[in-house]
């Protein structure tokens, strides 16, 4: 146990550590068993079996999904897990968002905060995962992120469906006086061998009184009817008819409308603001000062959103100066200093890479440096929340990835108990990690405290959204490899030494979310996507150089993997060319570990479907990259055509292995989505600073890929991995590197800094 | 002023310069057109005005020159418009937030160019999607067109 204690003492700041911030409230939950939150919601004739299922006497079956839907299709896949074992079809159920409750904590998201590669099943790695996972129960964090929802739910939700089915069958057996083994289910009914049937609804009240087994037997995969097959997403009709399902569509009687004008310089407030001018705008009724742990500024209250936006413009605040380097160059200097200083910590690695590189002749050493910029999440639906504070109770309606944290922090802001705050999770027009932050609900709560009990919908302008993000960190990588001596033919490189300078995302999150908790410790996200990858070296070292930069940073689709997927996979492409080897065949030869079999298979498959070895015309090139992230192994090949000058991305081929595919069509869609998200960033996205504030504001200066730029994308799925992996994020990390490597193949121009659009033109 | 929206007339009391988008969403509670950028870039607010594809965040309500069609006006009774039905068939939406605008743009494209080429689709469909549904949007449009 000594080594485990060392890992916890050294304080690896996974999300679990961030969750410790909720201790004061979490302890309360830990002392009690989790109640079923649906108990308090059942209507006349309805029965609940566990936190996921309510069945009415009329045989309406409602499945409550504890994770938030932001486009990833999670409501459909999680409902399928319950429905499969309950033995009902999608047309026999209604799927809805669960309430906010500790019963819905996400253990899997915290488990993977432990600083080990996903394929590492050793005692130390598993023990550390158990420690981190236990924190999940301790603080009862209900959240959607880290591509963890299906991993967390895979057994839990199937068992919930199976347990409910079992007591329904027992209730029928008792009613008919026959043995349970003679009864079958189907069509939301229990069937007697003589042809009689009872609906689940007719049995529900009796069944709910029975003790459900805690670990019922689950169907073998060969009996699956829903899982492993593609489903239509449950909310599809709303999404093609303009359905009012998003946070921004909230409408309540007597509702007011608001917006916020927060300081664009972090940690400071306003010197002055023209409140009179704002109040002079027709429809503006109040200008309110806001100060929370996430920022200082103003709220505008108005009779409609347009008036609030006009008022925000008229306010024209003058902000205090930034107490930090005011521009991107000044910030980058902090990164160079961090790289020149001693490493903060290392992860993974083997042998002695420092010694190997020192003793190798300099002609055999290849070095390169890479940078990525800060990035905004840029969700389609601008940030918003609706709140009402009356009779000492706060109600918040919000598209959120972390309703429990919003609940705690809003309670603290208003000085009320957590149980006086109700958070309704609505559908999100994109999340990508941004919608787990507390600033949006806090500002809505702050305004709701000033409306005399009326509800208020607070909508951010796109500019406010872009300039007050919790950004994907800027980062810089310094990579070195020891190549084989030049005269050896087709020999593999021997050693790698990686140094990455980046801020700690978890420390930044803690500072603004739970300022009372010390944010000391190591954050694996600095090295995610570099360490723990399926590649064998004689010697390797992965060093993190933590930067104490002032810019708030957060979880951006695939987090550290989006940084190091680019660094590591570009470097490996360079090493292959320096070694005179083809990038894919070199990588296939660097898999000296039986646990790397899935990597062998995805690379072989992607080479096959992209026709990797076939010659291409001059000016056309293919680039390869592979990243293991969130338990899913992904290889991508990008093809570009530069024959007309600008880069046209024509094709992407991807092969992904999540171990077990629960919904093939949706999984492929998520991989495509992650690729387009990653290519958009690689092509054109960059958040820069001047005068201590973000320079970009809207889609005119922070755009993303449009239809005309979108390549053809082909995805194949494999199931060789030993463990279940996530879907929402793993498509993103290899995309930028595969694109840059393709541009090199087509033009000979090596691009080491994102976005590429600063150096080459895109179609 | 009087606006005709989805074949119904509405009397509206709004400042002349208020964008049509906010009149629809906040004053008339028509929530299909979405707010995305406010500068006419993303197209989430796309409606038809007298049949013209229009970014409703950029059209002052006083300048509305004809009847307005929003996504709520597309179905005939309970029957989805052919474009909406194709969106269901191809499982186009992910987060779905941009899809009202995408569908309105596609409806206008297919009305004007019944058998669009890839180039026609690229030219007409300038709306932003952050989930990356473009390949499915293209497939759904081609399905409706039978090309």
Summarize the structure in words.
The complex is a heterodimer of chains A (763) and B (147). With 763 residues, chain A is an alpha+beta fold. Chain A folds into 3 domains: 33-106 and 141-240, Aldehyde Oxidoreductase, domain 4; 250-322 and 383-459, Aldehyde Oxidoreductase, domain 4, CATH 3.30.365.10; 328-375 and 471-758, Aldehyde oxidase/xanthine dehydrogenase, molybdopterin binding domain (Aldehyde Oxidoreductase, domain 4), CATH 3.30.365. Chain A contains 22 helices and 27 strands. In chain A, the strands form 7 sheets. In chain A, strands 10-11-8-18-15-16-17 form a 7-stranded mixed sheet. Chain A has a 5-stranded mixed sheet with strand order 13-21-20-19-14, with helices on both faces. In chain A, strand 6 (189-191) and strand 7 (197-199) form a beta hairpin. In chain A, helix 4 (74-86) runs parallel beside helix 7 (149-176). The longest helix of chain A has 28 residues, at 149-176. Chain A is globular and about 85 Å long. In chain A, 60% of the residues are buried. The model of chain A is unreliable at 1-10 and 20-31 (pLDDT under 50). Chain B has 147 residues and is of the alpha+beta class. Chain B is built from 5 helices and 5 strands; from the N terminus they run ββαβββαααα. The radius of gyration of chain B is 15 Å and the shape is globular. The termini of chain B are far apart. Chain B folds into 2 domains: 2-71, Roll (Ubiquitin-like (UB roll)), CATH 3.10.20; 82-145, [2Fe-2S]-binding domain (DNA polymerase, domain 1, Orthogonal Bundle), CATH 1.10.150.120. The mean pLDDT of chain B is 98.
């Amino acid at each position: 146990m000594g080594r485990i204690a060392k890992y916890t003492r050294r304080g690896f700041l996974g999300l679990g550590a961030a969750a410790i911030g909720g201790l004061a409230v979490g302890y309360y939950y830990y002392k009690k068993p989790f109640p079923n939150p649906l108990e308090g919601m059942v209507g006349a004739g309805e029965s609940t079996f566990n936190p996921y299922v309510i069945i009415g006497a009329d045989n309406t079956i409602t499945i409550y999904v504890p994770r938030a839907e932001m486009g990833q299709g999670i409501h459909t896949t999680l409902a399928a897990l319950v429905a499969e074992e309950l033995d009902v079809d999608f047309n026999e159920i209604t799927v809805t968002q669960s309430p906010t409750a500790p019963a819905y904590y996400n253990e899997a998201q915290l488990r993977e905060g432990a600083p080990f590669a996903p394929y590492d099943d050793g005692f130390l790695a598993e023990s550390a995962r158990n420690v981190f996972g236990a924190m999940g129960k301790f603080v009862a964090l209900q959240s959607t992120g880290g591509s963890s929802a299906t991993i967390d739910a895979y057994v839990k939700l199937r068992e919930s469906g199976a347990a409910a089915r079992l007591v329904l069958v027992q209730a029928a057996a008792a009613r008919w006086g026959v043995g349970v083994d003679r009864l079958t289910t189907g069509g939301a009914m229990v069937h007697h061998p003589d042809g009689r049937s009872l609906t689940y609804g007719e049995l529900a009240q009796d069944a709910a009184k029975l003790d459900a087994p805690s670990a019922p037997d689950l169907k073998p995969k060969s009996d699956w009817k829903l899982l492993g097959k593609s489903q239509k997403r449950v909310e599809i009709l709303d999404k093609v008819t303009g359905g009012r399902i998003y946070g921004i569509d909230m409408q309540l009687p007597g509702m007011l409308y608001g917006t916020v004008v927060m300081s664009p310089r972090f940690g400071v407030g306003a010197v002055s603001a023209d409140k009179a001018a704002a109040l002079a705008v027709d429809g503006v009724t109040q200008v309110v000062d806001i100060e929370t742990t996430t920022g200082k500024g103003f709220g505008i209250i108005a009779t409609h959103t347009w008036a609030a936006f006009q008022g925000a413009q008229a306010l024209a605040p003058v902000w205090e100066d930034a107490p930090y380097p005011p521009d991107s160059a000044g910030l980058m200097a902090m990164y160079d200093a961090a790289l020149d200083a001693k490493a903060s910590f290392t992860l993974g690695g083997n042998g002695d890479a420092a010694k190997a590189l020192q003793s190798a002749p300099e002609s055999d050493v290849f070095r390169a440096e890479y940078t990525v910029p800060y990035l905004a999440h840029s969700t389609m639906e601008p940030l918003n929340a609706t709140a009402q504070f009356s009779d000492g109770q706060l109600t918040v309606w919000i598209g959120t990835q972390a309703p429990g944290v919003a609940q705690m922090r809003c309670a603290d802001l208003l000085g009320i108990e957590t149980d006086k705050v109700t958070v309704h999770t609505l559908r999100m027009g994109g999340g990508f990690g941004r919608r787990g932050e507390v600033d949006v609900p806090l500002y809505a709560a702050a305004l709701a405290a000033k409306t005399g009990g009326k509800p208020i919908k607070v909508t951010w302008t796109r500019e406010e959204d872009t300039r007050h993000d919790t950004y994907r960190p800027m980062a810089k990588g310094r990579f070195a490899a020891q190549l084989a001596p030049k005269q050896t033919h087709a020999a593999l490189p021997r050693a790698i030494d990686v140094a990455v300078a980046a801020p700690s995302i978890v420390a930044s999150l803690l500072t603004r979310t739970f300022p009372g908790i010390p944010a000391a410790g190591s954050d694996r996200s600095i090295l995610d996507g570099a360490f723990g990858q399926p590649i064998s070296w004689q010697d390797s070292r992965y060093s993190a150089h933590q930067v104490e930069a002032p810019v708030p940073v957060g979880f951006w689709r695939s987090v550290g993997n989006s940084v190091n997927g680019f660094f590591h996979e570009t470097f490996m492409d360079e090493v292959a060319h320096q070694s005179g080897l083809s990038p894919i065949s070199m990588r296939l030869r660097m898999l000296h570990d039986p646990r790397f079999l899935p990597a062998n298979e995805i690379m072989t498959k992607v080479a096959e479907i992209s026709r990797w070895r076939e010659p291409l015309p001059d000016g056309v090139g293919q680039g390869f990259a592979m990243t293991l992230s969130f338990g899913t192994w992904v290889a991508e090949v990008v093809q570009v055509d530069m024959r007309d000058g600008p880069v046209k991305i024509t094709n992407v081929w991807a092969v992904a292995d999540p171990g077990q595919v629960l919904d093939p069509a949706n999984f492929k869609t998520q991989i495509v989505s992650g690729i387009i998200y990653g290519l958009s960033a690689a092509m054109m996205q960059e958040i820069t600073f001047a005068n201590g504030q973000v320079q970009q504001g809207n889609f005119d200066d922070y755009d993303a890929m449009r239809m005309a730029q979108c390549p053809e994308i082909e995805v194949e799925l494999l199931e060789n991995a030993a463990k279940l992996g996530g879907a929402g994020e793993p498509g993103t990390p290899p995309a930028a590197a595969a694109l840059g490597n393709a541009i090199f193949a087509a033009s000979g121009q090596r691009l080491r800094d994102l976005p590429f659009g600063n150096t080459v033109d895109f179609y | 002023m009087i606006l005709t929206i989805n074949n119904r007339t509405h009397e509206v009391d709004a400042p002349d310069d208020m964008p049509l988008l906010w009149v629809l969403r906040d004053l008339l509670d028509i929530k299909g057109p979405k707010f995305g950028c406010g500068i006419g870039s993303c197209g989430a607010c796309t409606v038809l005005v007298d049949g013209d594809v229009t970014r409703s965040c950029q059209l002052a309500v006083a300048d509305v020159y004809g009847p307005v069609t929003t996504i709520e006006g597309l179905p005939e009774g309970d029957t989805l418009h052919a474009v909406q039905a194709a969106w269901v068939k191809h499982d186009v939406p992910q987060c779905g937030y941009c899809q009202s605008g995408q569908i309105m743009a596609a409806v206008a494209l297919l009305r004007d160019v019944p058998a669009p080429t890839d180039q026609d689709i690229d030219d007409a469909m300038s709306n932003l999607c952050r989930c990356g549904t473009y390949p499915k949007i293209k497939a759904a449009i081609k399905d409706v067109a039978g090309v």
